[in-house]
Amino acid sequence: MTPKNYSVLYILNQKYAELALMSIRSLLAYADPDRLDRILVADIGLRRDTQRLLRRLSPRVEIVPTGVWVGESHKRHSRYWTEAVSLKTRILRALVARERNLPLVLLDTDTVVTSDFSSLLDCTHDLQVCRRHAPAQ
Predict the structure, then answer these.
(1) DSSP strand E in the chain: where?
(2) Which helix (DSSP H) or strand (DSSP E) does residue 79 occupy?
């Protein structure tokens, strides 16, 4: 059963702001506006000017404070990178509880949306996971 509405979650610090802007713009361009409820951005280290820029993209964008600041290291498996990745699960869990029955889609900031994916969401399952055809480099 496909849900009527859904929200999208990004977990973001300043280092990935440009990628997130690109991803959110592509989401807004291709998502069915009658089905996309909100775009939640869990703030783990955004500057205030970046928060304002994200909010200006759409009234659907909501910055979610987490009380967590994660450094800006790009190095995979660095302390900051590991902390940011582990935060995704904790933040997702907290927001699923907050959002109740509205489906919540977690997207990485380097995701480019190229078509509406809402028909792929299935409310008969508690969790859906997608798999890349090729591993990330």
Answers:
(1) 6-12, 36-43, 61-65, 104-106
(2) helix 79-99
Show pLDDT as tens, one digit a residue, over the chain (137 residues): 666 789 999 999 998 999 999 999 999 999 999 999 999 999 999 999 999 999 999 999 999 999 888 766 556 667 767 777 788 888 888 888 887 767 889 999 999 999 999 988 887 777 777 776 776 55
Classified as helix, coil or strand, 73 is coil
| Total-model pTM | 0.85
Sheet holding 6-12, edge to edge: 61-65, 36-43, 6-12, 104-106
- In this structure, the number of other CB atoms found within 10 A of the CB of residue 88 comes to 16
CA angle, residues 102, 83, 50, in degrees to nearest 5: 65
Q: Tokens 């703030």: give the residue.
A: 43
- The rounded Cα 64 to chain-centroid distance in angstroms is 11
Q: Is the dihedral of CA 20, 32, 85, 40 positive or negative?
A: positive
